[in-house]
Amino acid sequence: MTDPKIAFIGGGNMAQAIIGGLIANGYSRDLITAADPLPQQRTVIEERHGIRTVADNRLAVGASDVLVLAVKPQLLRDVCGEIGAPVQTARPLVLSVAAGVGTHDISRWLGEHVALIRVMPNSPALVGAGVTGMFANENVDATQKSVAERLMSAVGAVVWLDRESLLDPVTAISGSGPAYFFLIMEIMERVGIEMGLPADAASELTIRTAAGAAEMALQSGPDLVTLRRQVTSPGGTTEAALRTLEEADLRGIVRAALIAARDRGAELADEFGSD
Asked: How many CB atoms are located within 10 Å of the residue 65 CB?
C-alpha cells in the first residue's frame, strides 16, 4: 500500500514530535506537510525536519490523505470552521490531538460523515516514549485505523478504546500522569538533599531509580502488586517506607487526584464544545 500524504494543522511540540518520529522510522519527508500561521515557526519546522510548510490551513487539507489537528483546544472550533469545506471535498482521515474536544463537536464543525479519530498522547511522546489513547468514530475503517496506529506509534505505544468516554480516564492516568511522577521525584530529590546528599547525586539517584522501576514494570508484565512485593523485604527499609505511605492514605490521595483530573477533562469537553 502506498504511504498516505499527511498534513498537520499546527506546528507545535506534539506535531513536531510525531513528524520527527515518522521521519526517524523511514517515512518520506515529501509526504508530510505542516501548516502554521507563524513564519518563524514554519522556518523552524523546515530547518529541523526538512518538510514542506504552508501558512494556509486549507492548502494543507488539499494536500492530505491524513489530516492531524494539532492545535490548542480553544482554537479548534475556528480552525474546523475554516477547513470544513476542503475537508468535505478531500475526505481525509482526520486525527485530533486537541484534548477535551469530542468527536461529536468536531464532526459538527467539519461537516457530516468525517472519518475521525481522537488521540490522547502524553508528554513523553516528545522523546519517543509516550503512550496514546485512541478512539475512532463509526466512519473509520480498519485500514484507516491501521494508518492512524502507525502514525502514533512513531512516538510510543498505542491503546485503542471502544468508548469515547474512556478518554477522560486516559487523560487522568497517562495524559496528566507524567506530572504525578515528576512531583514524587521532586520530593524524593529534595528530601535526599535534606538528608545530606549532594544535589547532583540526589537528582541522578532519583531519576535513574524511576527509570529503572518503570523498565522493570515493562519487562515483568502488568502484575504490579507482585512486583512491589518482590522488592519489599519483611522488616526492611522499603517496608518501613511503604507502611508510612499507607498510613498517610496515599492510595486515597492518588485516587482523589485521578478523579479530579478525569472530571476536569469532562468539564473542559463541555466548555470547548459549547457554541
From this structure: 17
Q: Give the pLDDT of residue 274.
A: 63
* Contact by Cβ (8 Å): 8, 66: no
Q: Which CATH number fits domain 175-269: 3.40.980.10, 1.10.240.10, 1.10.3730.10, 3.40.350.10?
A: 1.10.3730.10
How far apart, in whole angstroms, are the C-alpha atoms of residue 203 and residue 198? Answer: 9
Q: Which residues pair with 52 in a beta bridge?
A: 33
Angstrom distance (rounded) from CA 99 to CA 74 = 10
Pairing of strands 116-120, 130-136: antiparallel
Specify the amino acid at residue 83: I
- Read off the C-alpha cell for 66: 491524513
Cα separation, 231 vs 223, whole angstroms? 13
Fold of 6-168: Rossmann fold (3.40.50)
121 in Cβ contact with 156 (< 8 Å)? yes
Could you say which residues of the chain have pLDDT below 50? Answer: none
Please enumerate in sequence order all residues whose Cβ is within 8 A of that of 198, keeping only pairs 6 or more positions apart, or say none: none
Euclidean distance between CA atoms 221 and 19, whole angstroms: 30
Q: Would you state the pLDDT for residue 257?
A: 97
